[in-house]
Amino acid sequence: xxxxxxxxxxxxxxxxxxxxxxxxxxxxxxxxxxxxxxxxxxxxxxxxxxxxxxxxxxxxxxxxxxxxxxxxxxxxxxxxxxxxxxxxxxxxxxxxxxxxxxxxxxxxxxxxxxxxxxxxxxxxxxxxxxxxxxxxxxxxxxxxxxxxxxxxxxxxxxxxxxxxxxxxxxxxxxxxxxxxxxxxxxxxxxxxxxxxxxxxxxxxxxxxxxxxxxxxxxxxxxxxxxxxxxxxxxxxxxxxxxxxxxxxxxxxxxxxxxxxxxxxxxxxxxxxxxxxxxxxxxxxxxxxxxxxxxxxxxxxxxxxxxxxxxxxxxxxxxxxxxxxxxxxxxxxxxxxxxxxxxxxxxxxxxxxxxxxxxxxxxxxxxxxxxxxxxxxxxxxxxxxxxxxxxxxxxxxxxxxxxxxxxxxxxxxxxxxxxxxxxxxxxxxxxxxxxxxxxxxxxxxxxxxxxxxxxxxxxxxxxxxxxxxxxxxxxxxxxxxxxxxxxxxxxxxxxxxxxxxxxxxxxxxxxxxxxxxxxxxxxxxxxxxxxxxxxxxxxxxxxxxxxxxxxxxxxxxxxxxxxxxxxxxxxxxxxxxxxxxxxxxxxxxxxxxxxxxxxxxxxxxxxxxxxxxxx
Length: 614
Hints:
It is a multi-pass membrane protein. By secondary structure, this protein is α/β, with parallel strands linked by helices.
């Protein structure tokens, strides 16, 4: 099918685009008779796509149009390989060959409908760290040059030092149009041969939408990329920028071709576009099921089936079928998509460590919450437990109270403050992992390193201050116990935030399943020891409590005290079953390892996008 000439004013764009290599091989993506079925909750098979065929070539910008539920996004996901469930039949080829599993993720970029970024980074920083993962084997200078080129091509140079912003935190940043162009820029860093975009104009005003599509039109032509985007109802001057339209209705193609060919096709079927009416609005009106009444639903369904039958019997469809004859003979085998990442695990960890540190120091809200919590507990505990006299019975009782409330404060602050670290950025991490930028494990370890050390520093400060106010003995052992316990709960908070998408639910789950049980079953209460003594063996607070006690009093903690002259007794004699400080430290470290493994699993599953090629 011949390409439509480009109708675009390049005046608002940069004149010095990086031109593509004149010898760049032209590419072709072809899909033939794609039928996709899923099983719903009632165990009923539902057809999402029905015998969908099409082709897109280098330099073409293709619009996939249709009403809600027509299958636009599903088609993009299948063509890119971002799906796993359901049954798919048909053939997809790239340059007349099945897509190669390890290379395919590096050949395409995907711009999702929702633009998600780390809000505390600037535009340039977002592109710079993304380039570290997307440009295999590139030097730092080459990465900087590519970032500068992409910013220039998409008009982002003027805002390169502006933070992206986070609406959930009421943090102002770049505009919605600039965010969309930033999303496109990130996907373009590695020179993809194909660019998929899921409704890139959604949520934009008409001028900004036109501006975004103009940039895409210019880049598609200059870079000789294949550009395929789903779009709902583009206005007429946006419609004119596309080389080809694919109109879907109820999962089947009702037309493929240029805008002019679409006008002619629907006119022949008795549906000419009325004067002064946007063609895309009119086409969507006549190809979308009308469910307002049973009569209208029946009428619209019959009309859509008529359109589908007319297209399948048209010369355009027959010509596409002849071109697809060779492709249909290629047998694809469905398999999970696996690929190698750009960086080795250590380098990946170091890049993410730098990113995590930058995000931490700029997160004034979470830092403020943690500091204010630390100041409040230090003041209250220092006053209440001033200079404990642990030689007497009431002193030992007060010591148990101090230790209990101190560990409660650590578990609460370290177990809740870090929850938003992954929870608020789940969609961003999911987008980046879907693009095969990094592993879940390296991201989790990097965030834990930064946030764990940050919270551990408060345990050091606590130890120094309580040494002077409460009278802590052996403050080094006290600090180490607090650091280990604090970092354990940081791991748990990160894990919960990675898996649970709602802040309220995450905090409640953390409190009910981790913080309260740790306090109740640690062995601090003698009555619990008598009823269900085995619970303390599974509680990390048991080992921290005993580390503090043994660091303070020695291995015989809790020490006997004199009740009356000549009568000695122990308070809660069964509080510790491991009688040595370093033995408790080792057991606490085992909980560390188990929590880290659980945290990586939570982040992996909470931010995973399943992939599959066929």
